[in-house]
Design goal:
12 helices; mainly alpha; three-stranded mixed sheet; two-stranded antiparallel ribbon; single chain; 5 strands
Length: 233
């Protein structure tokens, strides 16, 4: 039954997040299986904040935003990383990580927009499309069927980490900004908070070459200009 499910998923389908028809053969079971294994490696490499107030804040806002996103066919997981750097990142299958440093400078509206941005990457299948190119169908299917070798799994996790570290294309990042504001608005938050958050980043990193969240994204000023054109004041 599973193999048929995978093969049937290899088709050109309309993605509401990108508003395009896309050829995607990495299915949700494949993505979730890889995400689960990658998340275990993340847990070994990072220290998570155990303060329930901070963790609950991220989870509650994250679940509200995820519920109104363009992708609800998986369960999202949220965690707070103990790191003062203003950053957030996403692993396959809906695993979203927010640095404690980012929490310190954001109100709930801004946090909702940031989480929405990360969910936007998941909904648009940005990393999934990269993974299917880098890993191929056979490895991804073996991971989903729990039929992969230790070597294959280590390779897949390594590729995933590298892709996340390299960041996304400028087009992908700008789309995720728009999706983040859209999802935050649908969840009841102020979409203009995406702009106020980016202005905070710009102020803290005047050379625009600061944390990974900035280095892997288009210049902050460009992102602000785009959002100011699209979001009503």
């Amino acid at each position: 039954m599973f193999p048929f499910l995978f093969l049937s998923g290899c088709a050109t389908l309309y993605n509401p997040a990108t508003e395009k028809k896309e050829l995607v053969f990495i299915t949700t079971p494949m993505e979730v299986a890889l995400g689960k294994n990658t998340a275990m490696q993340v847990a070994k490499q990072y220290t998570f904040i155990k303060d329930p107030q901070q963790a609950n804040r991220v989870t509650e806002i994250g679940e509200k935003v995820a519920k109104v996103s363009d992708r609800t066919d998986l369960k999202y997981h949220f965690a707070v990383v103990s790191d003062k750097e203003i950053n957030a990142f996403t692993m396959p299958g809906g695993y979203i990580y927010i640095n404690s440093g980012l929490l310190e400078i954001t109100n709930d509206d801004e946090l909702a927009c940031v989480i929405g941005h990360e969910i936007g990457h998941v909904a648009a299948r940005h990393i999934a499309k990269k993974l299917q190119t880098q890993l191929g169908y056979e490895i991804l299917m073996n991971i989903a069927l729990q039929n992969t070798s230790v070597r294959q799994m280590q390779q897949a996790i390594g590729v995933t980490f590298n892709l996340v570290e390299l960041g996304y294309s400028r087009e992908d990042e700008l789309l995720s900004d728009r999706l983040g504001a859209k999802y935050a608005y649908k969840a009841g938050y102020n979409p203009n908070a995406m702009i106020t958050f980016l202005k905070k980043l710009k102020e803290k990193n005047k050379d625009e070459m600061g944390p990974v969240f900035l280095r892997s994204h288009p210049y902050t000023s460009q992102r602000i200009q785009m959002l100011e054109k699209e979001i009503p004041a």
